[in-house]
Amino acid sequence: MSTTSADELRDEVRRRYAESARAVSEGSSPGCGSGSCCEGETDAVNFGEALYDAEQRGELPEAAARASLGCGNPVLVADLKEGETVLDLGSGGGIDVILSAKRVGEKGLAYGLDMTDEMLALARQNAQQAGVRNAIFLKGVIEEIPLPSDSIDVVISNCVINLSIEKAAVLTEIGRVLRPGGRIGISDVVAEDRLSSEERAERGSYVGCIAGALSQGEYEAGLEAAGFEQISVELTHQVADGMHGAIVKAVKTTQPVQKGLPVIQPAASAGCC
Ligand SMILES: C[S@@+](CC[C@H](N)C(=O)[O-])C[C@H]1O[C@@H](n2cnc3c(N)ncnc32)[C@H](O)[C@@H]1O
User: I need a surface site. Which of 15, 38, 110, 127 has the fewest CB within 10 A?
Assistant: First the structure.
């Protein structure tokens, strides 16, 4: 993919999520088809706030729950402990940052990182409404995380890595910011290994979180090359033929590996939803 088309694709992703944030701020739903991973009526059960239980939703301002555009529930799988420092990649309206901040308590810290100004404004407002004081929202891209090395205990993310056009860079950056022994608990859309890039592109758009998905094998190889062990990529629910919501877990090895990353080619965009 040329630099121009990569930049254009990222701009398109940013534009779509700015639209979603504006919809939530105006009191409506980000909605399937307005730039979320969710693209149709039936997707409402596979994406967004439906993936959080009543207890978790009760901890959130209504707008934070409504802004949810994820494909899983990373806070549930990350097993957060008091005092830990957590980073949410592509934090959107802040749902997982707010829940994480409550789990790690006042001695811990929850960072949210997002590239879209409108999402950052919504997330800060939601965190304030939730009464959370140990959450910090940063502007930046997940391919170049604006945090020091070895500073994070847990990286979470909800349906964002599939949107990146430089996935190897994202995995390397996660490995860099995590402390040795740090872990990931990530929800993402993942393709079955049998699907080619073209077949993934046919099944949806990049903006819609489908065309850019890594396969299960690519995810595992990418994490191993980025210095992770105890890797598991578990497919949890089908979102399109051969494409699944998945839980990705791994631990940063205490010894950095000395090998190069494989080249992970994203599927070409099938155009936007
Ligand atoms: C599908 S939404 C998910 C939001 C949130 N994680 C949730 O579960 O509701 C994707 C979010 O990731 C952000 N995003 C997409 N690509 C990004 C990138 N390369 N760097 C930083 N943020 C990105 C978008 O601005 C948007 O807020």
Answer: 15
